[in-house]
UniProtKB/TrEMBL annotation:
Ranges where the Glycoside hydrolase family 42 N-terminal domain occurs: 7-385
Binding site for Zn(2+): 107, 151, 153, 156
Organism: Lacrimispora celerecrescens
GO terms, biological process: galactose metabolic process
Entry EC no(s): 3.2.1.23
Annotated positions binding substrate: 103, 141
Protein known as: Beta-galactosidase
Highest classification ranks of the organism: Bacteria, Bacillati, Bacillota, Clostridia, Lachnospirales
Length: 671
């Protein structure tokens, strides 16, 4: 496993650099990331490239066995560039330009800026593409971060109009498919269509309150902007690949933080990489982002390019808690257990200057190694002991299907905000499967999913007819499909279906949706869920969204009070060789676990043998044709866990009793 830190030699005096490199070499890590914010040093004036300040650092670290991820610095265009091309600034939904003085101030669709990015990428590729001390390349940094993923400048406006014309062909087709007659919004030419006034990206400010725009235009602008970011990235990727055989990637920011479709965005890259900053102070570290990482590039390990390092200040000036003793080591091993092949802490030493001054790091401003440094040193040594387990595989028999169109559409027109979030809901389903020992992959709805025994389809709000047909065939051939409320409500144009819901899947589920409403505290309703038998019933309450179902499917769940009493809310239906379930509301965690255990427990072969107490996470992998377990204690206190007989501790080689103790912030690897 590649393990290390981000480091910024361009900030250092000779004395500081000498001291930092000494500490880095003594730390036991094997990888650093450098260069991604240093364009003004790499290209001090147009067309003149200078890597003389970086070369000796890469050389010295490389000779000590530490390889470098080199970043292209295109997130921070230098002052000389914006002076030369004053029309290159990013413009937000308020039509306000981002000036020089921060970062991400360039428009990703500006052609001259793109050429400059291609130029620096080519120079980096030529200079470092075959350097034996280089481990790979990172393109840009956190594309679309800090509200810079939906540019509305005149260049983007024109490009969006051309994009729409290429997609729809004629304006009459667009008017028809978008339902533009509503509020008299029919267009005579694509040049009349502008980017939306309001935006869904994080930090975006509402320009005009109570201004309700075309859902089709808004969804198309999300798609266009995502594709533009990917196009911008791939210009550099193609150039770098011409000069190197090392991995080329970029760093995503969470699953949907910046609304780039990562399933498409990483198709042209060598591995999925992302940044993850979980709370490491006696808190559960969610594995859902890692499962997503495995699904973006199937069968390939992923990279964590930036990871939590310490507490204190952060970019925005608020703070992060310090990780408890042992928590850094625990979290790194957890990432490894979940399939990470690289993890880099952000960062090695705190910044004294700039927007990220006083930021958390492995080493503080004074450069004195303390607890976090020594824990990183221990972790680096520990990872070497775990190397043999890289040959393990995952035992996921369930696929959770995600779709960015549904995410965007539910942000554009929320159904119950903030109670319901598409991605949070998918994460909740993953978590409850994990808690009962059933592990799942998180994959694109467009991917081939026939190999999975069961599929979970969370709130697939926008669903193409063709995708519905693929799901139908999956069930017909013997698959198990568990879909939830808000399935197949809209078509790919973001228009509501005018046929019974779930559209194009009524035959599969054997039900139609009769009524819908959001669920608030004032209208929550009791539910009964019938499991193995009618005597085995779980009582719970609905959450977030409520649908009443009717049809010839078997009733599994029903409402127990209000006017909804005895109406179906969870159904089971045989279709072909398979079975389709429809869950018409969100459930409390305990009810989801009981339902999943009843529906999937009998068909999954690789269920965990360990029933973990609250606060203990189990990750299982297959090694030498048997199941092994990583146990992580996030509870904040010592925990006792019961395990099967005949197990051993992988690290100590000791045979274990059936009752083991895991320390606070501790973990066990059991084989």
């Amino acid at each position: 496993m590649l393990y290390g830190v981000s480091y910024y030699p361009e900030h250092k005096s000779n004395e500081e650099l000498k001291w930092d490199l000494k500490l880095i070499k003594e730390s036991g890590i094997n990888t650093v990331r450098m260069g991604e914010f240093s364009w003004c040093r790499m290209e001090p004036e147009e067309g003149r490239y200078d890597f003389s300040w970086l070369d000796p650092v890469i050389e010295e670290l490389g000779q000590a066995g530490i390889r470098t991820i080199v970043g292209t610095p295109t997130a921070c265009p230098p002052a000389w560039m914006v002076e030369a091309w004053p029309d290159m600034f990013y413009q937000d939904n308020r039509r306000i330009c981002r000036p020089f003085g921060g970062r991400r101030h360039g428009c990703y669709n500006h052609e001259t800026y793109r050429k400059a990015c291609a130029g620096i990428a080519k120079a980096i590729g030529k200079h470092y593409g075959r350097n034996p001390y280089v481990a790979g390349f990172q393109i840009d940094n956190e594309l679309a971060q800090e509200g810079t993923g939906r540019c509305t400048c005149k260049n983007c406006r024109k490009k969006f109009q051309v994009w729409l014309e290429q997609k729809y062909g004629g304006i009459e087709t667009f008017n028809r498919k978008s339902g533009a007659i509503f509020w008299s919004q029919e267009y005579r030419a694509f040049e009349q269509i502008n980017p939306p006034v309001n935006a869904i990206e994080p930090g975006a400010q509402i320009q005009i309150r109570d201004f309700y725009e075309s859902p089709t235009v808004r969804l198309e602008f999300e798609r266009f902007s995502s594709e533009s970011q990917i196009e911008f990235q791939n210009i550099q990727a193609d150039i770098l690949k011409a000069f190197t055989s090392y991995p080329v990637t970029t760093n995503g920011t969470g699953l949907v933080t910046n609304s780039i479709d990562y399933f498409k965005g990483f198709e042209n890259l060598d591995c999925y990489a992302f940044d993850y900053y979980p709370n490491l102070r006696d808190a559960w570290v969610d594995s859902f982002p890692y499962a997503f990482g495995r699904g973006v590039k199937p069968d390939l390990p992923f990279w964590v390019m930036e990871f939590m390092s310490g507490g204190g200040h952060r970019l925005s000036g608020t703070g992060r808690l310090q990780p408890g003793p042992g928590a850094l080591k625990q979290a790194v091993v957890q990432a490894f257990a979940n399939g990470a092949d690289l993890l880099l802490h952000y960062q090695f030493r705190s910044f004294p200057a700039g927007a990220e001054q006083l930021n958390y790091a492995i080493v503080d401003l004074d450069g004195i190694p303390r607890r976090r440094y020594y824990e990183m040193q221990e972790t680096a040594n520990l990872l070497k002991q775990l190397e043999p387990l890289k040959e393990t595989s995952f035992c996921s028999e369930v696929g959770i299907l995600l779709d960015y169109d549904s995410h965007w559409a539910l942000k554009i027109k929320p159904v119950n905000e903030p109670e319901f979030s598409y991605m949070d809901f998918a994460g909740k389903l993953y978590y409850n499967l994990e808690r009962i020992g059933i592990h799942s992959d998180v994959i694109s709805l467009e991917r081939d999913f026939l190999s999975y025994k069961a599929l979970v389809l969370p709130a697939s709000f926008v669903l193409k007819k063709e995708t519905a047909k693929r799901l139908q065939e999956y069930v017909k051939q013997g698959g198990i499909l568990i879909a939830t409320f808000l399935t197949s409500v809209k078509n790919e144009d973001n228009l509501g279906y005018t046929i019974p819901l779930p559209a194009h899947l009524v035959e599969v589920f054997g039900v139609t949706v009769q009524e819908v409403e959001p669920v608030f505290d004032s209208n929550r309703t009791k539910l009964g869920i019938r499991l193995a038998s009618e005597e085995d019933e779980v009582e719970t309450r609905d959450k977030a969204w409520s649908e009443l179902l009717a049809g010839n499917a078997k009733l599994l769940g029903y409402y127990k009070d209000t006017y909804k009493k005895d109406s179906m809310v969870i159904s089971q239906h045989s279709f072909g060789e398979g079975t389709a379930y429809y869950v018409g509301t969100d459930l409390e965690d305990s009810a989801w676990r009981a339902l999943f255990k009843s529906l999937l427990g009998p068909v999954c072969n690789w269920k965990d043998e360990i029933e973990a107490p609250e606060g203990v996470q189990v990750i299982s992998r297959i090694w030498q044709e048997k199941q092994i377990y990583f146990l992580f204690n996030f509870s904040g206190q010592e925990k006792t866990v019961c395990i099967p007989a005949g197990k051993s501790d992988f690290l100590t080689k000791e045979e274990l009793l059936q009752e083991i103790i895991i320390a606070q912030n501790g973990f066990k690897v059991i084989v």
